[in-house]
Design brief:
By secondary structure, this protein is mainly beta. It is 5% helix and 42% strand. It is globular and about 55 Å long.
């Protein structure tokens, strides 16, 4: 698998911060209802709640794709049909949605539903397949994984895993129905059919089925662990606001008007240490770096960096805007060994950013 993004909702207590800085979108609803809930996921961390008929979304980091693998924890109530996650094209038309029925525990795969990004229930569409009843238990956390090939004329496929086991396989199906190729967004909807309450989502990973093992198949139940910088490793930027560079870097939401690290010297770089993974860790599938970057002139380039032992890996080149946003890079292998991460390497690595030009 090529892992392209992840989300723990662990850096802030406000969903509005994720909309402002981290490429999420509030499609329908309000910040008084769509909130980050602390201590409310299977690992004691944060989740996002989405109210009845409301919707939140995030663009896929690779842009348009026809090959998608997606995993997340969900919790729904037991009193009705819920449109849980929608995969939509660049015009916000539904290609495929995964419906979760909290009453009978069934999961359905539907194409072409309406009302993706409005304050209304999903409606219409063609059901491609449905799992057996009681596939999942409402009011508890479940882990769902979906692999979809988006194609016309029965060239698509959908595979659904629930809590580590396969519950639905659909082949030779039409999964592209809007007239626009592929998908650009995933959308989380709240409870449908007028049912009060919230859906909850957490520990999301996004990828595709390319690459080599173990990244070309479902990862299984995973935890997305979030760590802020805890100390300077090696710094060359000048801190403003806080006394130390790591303190500015650790602030989320960022405070770019007063607390920031700055430089005008090309190739200057900051790197930081962070916390360690706890408990029994079976596998580390990727280390993901996220940095808020802003450039008042809009003319410079920057990149995330990841340091392991004496090796340094550099992320994609970014041209930060005058407004700024969070830039993400995914490192599936340890740059010091060129193979999959082990726990000790992930705990000891340092991350930061570099001014390129």
């Amino acid at each position: 698998m090529a892992i392209t993004d992840s989300e723990s909702f662990g850096f802030s207590s406000s969903f509005q911060d994720y909309v402002t800085y981290a490429n999420w979108v509030l499609l329908a609803g309000s910040y008084s209802n769509e909130q980050i809930v602390s201590g409310n996921n299977p690992f004691g961390g944060n989740s996002v709640q989405v109210q009845s008929s409301h919707a939140i979304a995030k663009s896929l980091p690779t842009g348009n794709t026809t090959n998608l693998m997606f995993g997340f924890y969900f919790k729904v109530l037991s009193n009705g049909q819920y449109g849980a996650v929608v995969f939509s094209d660049s015009s916000n038309n539904c290609q495929v949605y995964i419906g979760l029925n909290g009453t009978n525990g069934q999961i359905s795969v539907v194409t072409g539903a309406a009302n993706v990004g409005v304050d209304s229930n999903l409606s219409g569409g063609t059901t491609l397949g449905t799992t057996a009843a009681s596939s999942f238990t409402a009011n508890t956390w479940n882990f769902l994984e979906v692999a979809i090939i988006f194609a016309t004329a029965s060239g698509g496929s959908v595979s659904v895993n629930l809590n580590g086991g396969n519950v639905l396989n659909l082949t030779s199906v039409t999964t592209q129905v809007s007239g626009i190729t592929g998908v650009n967004f995933f959308v989380f909807k709240g409870p449908a059919n007028g049912n009060a309450g919230y859906n909850y989502y957490s520990n999301i990973y996004v990828g595709d089925t390319t690459g080599s093992a173990p990244w070309n198949a479902f990862l299984g139940e995973v935890k997305v662990a979030a760590f802020n910088p805890t100390a300077n490793d090696a710094v060359q930027f000048t801190p403003n606001g806080n006394a130390n560079n790591y303190q500015n870097a650790a602030e989320y939401p960022p405070v770019p008007g007063t607390d920031f690290n700055q430089t005008a010297t090309v190739n200057n770089q900051d790197s930081f240490t962070h916390g360690s993974l706890s408990g029994v860790v079976k596998s580390v599938y990727a280390v993901v770096t996220k940095s808020f970057m802003i450039d008042p002139s809009g003319s410079h380039t920057m990149a995330n960096v990841l340091l392991s032992s004496t090796s340094t890996a550099q992320g994609i080149t970014n041209t930060p805007s005058t407004v700024g946003k969070v830039y993400t890079d995914v490192f599936e292998t340890d740059p010091a060994t060129s193979v999959q991460w082990v726990t000790a390497g992930a705990n000891a690595c340092r991350n930061g950013y570099k001014l390129l030009s």
